[in-house]
Design goal:
RNA-binding; Glutamyl-tRNA Synthetase, domain 3; Arc Repressor Mutant, subunit A; tRNA binding; three-stranded antiparallel beta sheet; 481 residues; mainly alpha; protein biosynthesis; nucleotide-binding
Amino acid sequence: MTIRVRIAPSPTGNLHIGTARTAVFNWLYAHNQEGKFVLRIEDTDLERSRSEYTENIKSGLEWLGLTWDEGPFFQTQRLDKYTAAIQTLIDRGLAYSCYCTPEELDKMRENQKAKGLAPRYDNRHRNLSSEEKAAFEAEGRKPVIRFKIDDDREIVWQDKVRGRVSWQGSDLGGDMVVARAGETEAIGQPLYNLAVVVDDIDMAITHVIRGEDHIANTAKQILLYEALGAKVPEFAHTPLILNQDGKKLSKRDGVTSIDDFRKMGFLPEALANYMTLLGWTPPDSTEEIFTLEEAATKFDLGRVNKAGAKFDWAKLDWINSQYLHKMPANELVELLIPYWQSAGYEVNLDSDRSWLESLTAMVTPNLTRLANVVEETKLLFGESVEYTDEAIEFLKQEGVDLVLQEAITAIEEADTLETADAKGIIKQVTKSQKVKKGLVMRSLRAGLTGEMHGPDLIQSWVLLNQKQLDRGRLSKALSLI
RNA sequence: GGUGCUGUAGACAAAUUGGUAAAGUCACCUGCCUUUCACGUAGGGGUUUGCGGGUUCGAUCCCCGUCAGCACUGCCA
């Protein structure tokens, strides 16, 4: 039998890191089992669903490399199927009309809480007589459809991650609503648990892999599978992603959408790599850098952790830096150009390309996120330099002025400045001024960049020279002394 | 309030019929490399396995209790 899994996001927001991680696990399992990965958009909440979120979810999954084999399917295009399933439940006597108003239900729960009882629906309309129903109808009340949940029933399943899980029917909150009240139609909009089950049956999903916040839903859904006479799939509940405080990562934590991560300069391969590690450990592995394909060959739901996975920015940064550092400059430069542009640096895409590529090669080891490039290269752009106190102090040391003076003269005499030329000048100045090479290097660094630390000095100088910025900067430094 | 789950170094975590506690990765510290920072590389420190009992020759693992954290408890998904 072909393994079939799915990711079923609701388009009520941008693609969230938690959804994406669930997608990762589903994708890995599908690829490990040579199965199919299905994308289904759960848009039955008409109030909150937006088509732009659907687009964001699709593009986010694609960006991460989480390609789906089938879909996207939309629940709003399948409403007939849900209505038919609900009708089946009614016909079988497993579901019924409930005329309670939201206000009545609120009051009921308040009373229960006041008495120290667990809030739940008390199944009060389960056995309404036809006269009672007619009376509610006459009042103009529109019923929801509730699915009967036997309080005495124990629901048990073998979870692929958590082992045996059991749930008592009485802890499921009473008979569950499967359809909203309809305006004119007898059966209104279907609700999540019903739609999910109908779809998973219809799409022949064999393994439902989702977050552990769905565990109670799984118990309810198993009852629906049985009521609809369908085979119950396997379930695997993955741990939640936690923030630094150990709470479920939510929008309040700031950066949580895949879009945000992309804008901050994380590479899709790195982010996907990190997400595989959120709750899963590769077997006998000492290597944590790998592609989704590599991870898929080793992926096993049995090695998924039960404890929540705390989100670790430092580790994500490290993984991202590993990918960045391995990337060839001619590819990386293309990713960096938008960051320079949005920072307002003057970048001529025709004439500057090779200069930018050299610049990229120089600062690559310093990059953790793409966006860092703005800060890391700011000293190489523009006429003006801001000198740090440390640099000014250094420049005022005895002999520095003469070093800079001679360097300026040397630049003026040279047509172009290659790496070898720069080295030659440094050697020449060192000799004629009778100082240590380190003093010359640091003098040039302070004079050219205004700082005492930074990327390779000779390369920096060559790049500045190509932009004809070196002489002016050194002269300015001299004027400060 | 109820139900469920989880608890191993700062973080992610390994230890899969109970067998010397802690592999590995990140972070941290140190040496090397470098004009410097970073990268790289070679080392290093860090644990009463939440706590208390029990079973056992032996417990991170099984049992009981306890504490803490989290999730769920909708005419949301």
